[in-house]
Amino acid sequence: MNTKEQQNDQQLTSPYGPLNDLEREVIINQGTEQPGTGKYTNTTQRGVYACRNCGSPLFTADDKFLSQCGWPAFDDEISGQVRRSVDADGRRTEITCQQCGGHLGHVFNGEQLTAKNTRHCVNSVAIVLEGEDSQRIRRAVFAGGCFWGVEALLAKQPGVLAAVSGYTGGAVAHPSYKQVCAGDTGHAEAVQVFYNPSQTDFLSLCRYFLEIHDPTQVARQGPDVGQQYRSAIFYVDDEQQRIATALLLLLKRKGLDVQTELQPLERFWNAEDYHQDYYAGNGKMPYCHAWQKRFDDAEIKTLAAELSLPAKLSADLMSSSAGKATAVYDFTVKTAADLDESLSIYKGKVLLIVNTASKCGFTPQYEGLEELYQKYRERGLVVLGFPCNQFKSQEPGSNLEIQEFCQLNYGVSFPIYAKIDVNGDNTHPLYQFLKDQKTGLFGKAIKWNFTKFLVGADGVVIDRYASITKPASLAPDIEKALLAVTR
User: Fold this and answer.
1) Which residues are registered as beta bridge partners of 120?
2) CA-CA-CA-CA torsion for 428, 468, 134, 43, nearest 10 degrees?
3) Beta bridge partners of 465
4) Domain ranges of the chain
5) Cβ contact 72:101 at 8 Å
6) Whose CA is closest to 139, among 221, 81, 65, 219?
7) Which of 97, 132, 303, 365 is 20 to 30 A off residue 311, Cα-Cα?
8) Which CATH code for domain 138-321?
9) Reduced to 3 states, what is the DSSP secondary structure of residue 209?
10) Model confidence pLDDT, tens digit, residues 270-326
11) 17-130 belongs to which homologous superfamily?
12) What are the catalytic residues?
């Protein structure tokens, strides 16, 4: 892909506008800004640091420290948002944005600068600070029993960018799981949710939280007993406090003996890596958390009006809460020969579904997709290509021409179906389902060619990846999905 094509694709995905020369040199060409020149080197303002290229949340201000190294330093990251890879010289570990692959800096261990003994050395031009009142990224913190289940369910809600298991509400700094379980720290197992306020809001998330656990239990949740399993909402501002108070009062008026605590958020401590995304990594389902309707839509609308809030009652949130989601197996698509084919033929397989184009800067990704298919097909992976001509008419050929192009130029052997629409009034039902299951960083719409959806063997979307994400980087997630099938 040439530089002009690359720049055009970045402008389509970046919420902060096109990259300037220095930003492009650092983020795309893996350069480094001069030490001491970055705007965030000594910043202490609270908030979330997002990727300058794609807007994905990467670090929190809680984990930032003054390292005197000349660049912003963080001793932790938002789980699942930062990728690590060894430099070509084998000496340093590069950190990049998990969502778009943009270069951030390097990570160092063993310097004894913080209790975590880790320093993410990040270029200021690679990140953007979103304050607590940001219109792009906000956070909410909930505790409702074992954080595995709360995280798993909240992470799937529309508008949620990331969900992280951790500890809060106590007085001990840098708590460990063992310390929290001993009951001496005062911390609760909690989940910090990062969400896009243009896609969802605190009212919707807090409502859902109160419907996936039992807010009437004291110092326990199901079989998990102890103060660390208490029900609590940790608000970050006055508005969240007002909303949570109103929802809890509504439950009390319904006759529930609500035990949920309401506290201001002081400091959230990320839990150990093995706790993050636990159920997805182990191929299991939450055992003590399940949705149970406790609120009517009408009363939530009334409550929103009383609080002078916009009633952002997402239809997707309601349907997913009610368990009405289906699977990709329920859809029928057209083959290149214009024959109907049910995707039920892939039941039990892990799928990588991609909207493709033959004249795009990302077209060479066909090669990487084919490599993934060849590497994992015997273990149950199938790559499905769906050509689309909606992005600058970069797929103008007939279905037959597309088939020939893919085979002759990239040796593609995975299924390439007939052309479809992925956005607009004629969106194929399959893609409407995929987008409902997993929104992009700033909305449901497919932003460009080669957006990728990883679908588990149960037919439900596991994750969504931007066009710029290289196929090879999906290998760890594919491994996890395939491992879950064999368990």
Assistant:
1) 74, 107
2) 170
3) 452
4) 17-130, 138-321, 328-486
5) no
6) 81
7) 132
8) 3.30.1060.10
9) helix
10) 999 888 988 777 666 666 788 888 998 888 888 888 888 764 444 344 443 333 446
11) Peptide methionine sulfoxide reductase. (2.170.150.20)
12) 360
